[in-house]
Amino acid sequence: MKKISQALPLLGGITPEQFLSEYWHKKPLLIRQAIPGFTPLLDKDELFELAAQEEAESRLISFFGKHWEMQNGPFEQLPVKEKKDWTLLVQGVNLHREEADALLRQFRFIPDARLDDLMISYAADGGGVGPHFDSYDVFLLQAHGQRRWKISAQKDLSLVEGMPLKILRNFKAVQEFLLEPGDMLYLPPHYAHDGEAVGECMTYSIGFRAPSYQELGEAFLHFMSDTIELPGRYADPELKPAANPAEISSAMLSNIAEQLEKIRFSEEDMTIFLGEYLSEPKRNVVFSGPDKPLTPKRFTQAAIKNGVSLSLATQMLYKGKHVFINGESFAIGKEDKVAILKLANDRELDGNGVAEASEDVQEALCTWYEDGWVQLKAK
Ligand code: SIN
Ligand code: CO
Known about the structure:
- The protein is of the alpha+beta class.
- It has helices at 16-22, 44-51, 98-105, 213-225, 250-260, 267-279, 296-306, 334-346, 351-356, 359-371; strands spanning 29-31, 57-64, 67-72, 86-91, 115-123, 138-152, 175-179, 184-187, 192-208, 308-310, 316-319, 322-325, 328-331, 348-349, 374-376.
- It folds into three domains: 9-208, Cupin (Jelly Rolls); 212-234 and 249-265, no CATH class; 296-376, 3-Layer(aba) Sandwich (Malonyl-Coenzyme A Acyl Carrier Protein, domain 2).
- The chain binds succinic acid and cobalt (II) ion.
């Protein structure tokens, strides 16, 4: 499906392999005309419309005097155009627009488990989110107008206290670039940067996902609470009269410790946990199936004719025989493998693929279609 050894204009003429070994997590890369002649996927008004919707996650950041302000959307109204120094950020545009999804998928040399979303920012002249660092890698693609990026590998990442957003206390730029539409800047995690709009501009951030181990650990223990089985109940047939009634006895503690130590987790538990965790839809994602779904028989006929594709917000992953879709997991047999893996990797399955799929897979496709996870392709 993908040509990972091919040099990409998107990466300035180097291969994904070279990019990952030389730049990823290591150093910035400026790519002039990563997408030559790039034009915005949605205009300013369309972006503002999205920011007015409940399902889109948006923030408005402004800087007046020496004061940063941040508000969360949805926004019915935005500052007037003539007002300087404000930025609108709309997260997860790929969940709402096909073209934004297609752009994000150009970065699929990074696995889906790490790709996060496409965020679009609109800034009035002089606008920006201030000098800061991010905990994740980011590609900053200039979509409209110009933005001046100042960057620094500084170790001092201390922040100004009491601000509603992360602002570096001592930002000292060492490099400066003026980005035009189609230019792109890659920054590794924790790389200090500050982007200022030169005239009004729009910037697209291709963001990545890197959960903290703490977050993973907490979620794993939660997952295991649904999975563990510890039969029996505490009993103490040898109980002795209590001299100190408030004290927990050593006998009770060791009895219970012995039982709790029976809690084990296997690699399979961790696989299922991770797949369900990573494919869990984002908080604001709502799937809606067709108003008048076809009957299963009709659906399969139509799917064999037209093929199917995953809905924009569907996350489908797999590991070995375990398949994960939107936070649910199931194990597949050999006969299901070709169709399921193709659907997950290509995010679509053509009519032949559906026709050759096992009955179980065809049934699953129909359920996912009813749930809005999968859709029929238009012919
Ligand atoms: C922006 O687009 O204004 C902010 C992007 C970033 O600095 O990560
Ligand atoms: Co940033």
